[in-house]
Amino acid sequence: MDLNTVVEVCDARRRGTWRPGDAWLGGGTYLFSEPQPDVRRLIDLGRTGWEPLRTTPAGDLEIAATCTIAELSRFGRSARWAAAPLVEQCCRAFLASWKIWNAATVGGNLCNALPAGPMISLTAALDGGCTLLSQEGEIRRLPVRDFVRGAGAKDLRPGELLRSITLPARALERRTAFRQTSLYGLGRSAALLVGTLDPLDGELAVTVTASTVRPVRLSFAVPPNAAAVREAVEHAIRPEEYFDDIHGRPAWRRHMTLRFAEEIRRELLEGSAR
């Protein structure tokens, strides 16, 4: 779609004053998908030269906000971490064409803050942390689960930029379980749950996304039974926090959340007992 209100495209490497009507341009798959009548200037991140993915000396995985889904998918297929299969599972949850895969970015998916954003699911489940940069160069860090505050709402201040998301080395060594459903065969995710099991302390965690307006994390220090998992879901998610749109009504999303949480519990705990 032509954005006929845009009068200027700027290079993000040249810092300037942030103005009303400015917007960061990453892959552009959202920006150019619908009218943006308030946007006057695009700040293009395409020439920043950020390395898409890198392993830090501590063993953490740093994902640049400009990393595309295609780049992340290729990396995940070759990685040897225990949690590596989750990368491809979440990439496939896009149900998008190869054109989108090669343009859409991990950072853009987080900044759109849509409940069905699978990069939110991936990074929230693996304890991802966001690195945010202000126009003055100040750095702010917060967990992905706190960055996404609701449907379309994120903790991003005017002019602030999501620079990268870091997944801790310990989280990458967890066993994972993945559950996702859509109301339609090729529809948007209506419920996407990820379970992880820590090999060091045995903690089970279940992260709920897509069915809720924000990521919800449930943690169990000791192996829970079915009743404990159900109680935790009911306590952590208020009725109004289940998302309601054409892709699924709240009652059905709640039902699938409870069902998937129990399936994940059985898969990870029974699998660890063998």
List keywords for this structure.
single chain; 274 residues; five-stranded antiparallel sheet; four-stranded antiparallel sheet
Report on this structure.
This protein has nine helices and 14 strands. By secondary structure, it is α+β, with helices and mostly antiparallel strands. The strands form four sheets. The protein has a five-stranded antiparallel sheet. Helix 1 runs antiparallel to helix 2 (84-92) and helix 2 packs antiparallel against helix 5. The radius of gyration is 19 Å and the shape is globular.
Q: What structural category arises from helix and sheet content?
A: alpha+beta
Q: What proportion of the residues is helical, as a percent range? A: 25-40%
Shape field: globular
Distance between the termini: 54 Å
**Percentage of residues in DSSP E strands:** 25-35%
Are there runs of 5+ residues with pLDDT below 50, and where? Answer: none
The overall average pLDDT, rounded, is: 94
Strand tally is 14
Rg estimate, integer Å: 19 Å
What is the element string, with H for helices and E for strands?
Answer: EEEEEHHHHHEEHEEEHEEEEHH
Write the layout of secondary structure elements.
Layout: E1 8-11, E2 22-25, E3 41-44, E4 53-55, E5 61-64, H1 69-78, H2 84-92, H3 98-101, H4 106-112, H5 118-125, E6 129-133, E7 139-143, H6 144-147, E8 148-150, E9 153-154, E10 161-167, H7 169-172, E11 175-182, E12 189-197, E13 204-209, E14 216-220, H8 226-236, H9 250-273
Parallel strand pairs: 1-3, 2-3
Antiparallel strand pairs: 4-5, 5-10, 6-7, 6-10, 8-9, 11-12, 12-13, 13-14
Helix pairs in contact: 1-2, 2-5, 8-9
